[in-house]
């Protein structure tokens, strides 16, 4: 589900809103009540920081076999 960010034109507060369908009009600013909020282009759902998948081979070598950088 996409999350849209609405930035308040008054105080600059960025309100993250989970929306089911894209709408141009955002909710009022929860901080100051300003209704003029600007939709920002936003991330799709939360950015989950995952560690990179276990490296099975050296990133710079096409094959793991015999790579001096690959341990294991
Ligand atoms: Zn505000």
Give an overview of the whole structure.
With 72 residues, the chain is mainly beta. The chain has a domain at 3-40. 0% of the residues lie in helices and 21% in strands. It is built from no helices and three strands. It has strands at 3-8, 14-18, 37-40. Strands 2-1-3 form a three-stranded antiparallel beta sheet, with no helix packed on it. Strand 1 and strand 2 form a beta hairpin. The radius of gyration is 21 Å and the shape is rod-shaped. The relative contact order is 0.23. Bound molecules: zinc ion. Zinc ion binds next to loops.
Helix/strand layout:
Blueprint: E1 3-8, E2 14-18, E3 37-40
Antiparallel strand pairs: 1-2, 1-3
Zinc ion is lined by residues 8, 10-11, 13, 29, 31-32, 34.
Order of helices and strands: EEE
Q: Which class of secondary structure composition applies to the elements?
A: mainly beta
- The share of residues in helices is under 10%
Number of DSSP E strands = 3
Q: Which percent range describes the beta-strand content?
A: 15-25%
Largest sheet: 3 strands, antiparallel
Shape estimate: rod-shaped
Oligomer description: single chain
Low-confidence stretches: none
How many distinct helices?
Answer: 0
Physical arrangement of strands within the biggest beta sheet: 2-1-3
What small molecules does this complex bind? zinc ion
Radius of gyration: 21 Å
Distance between the termini: 39 Å
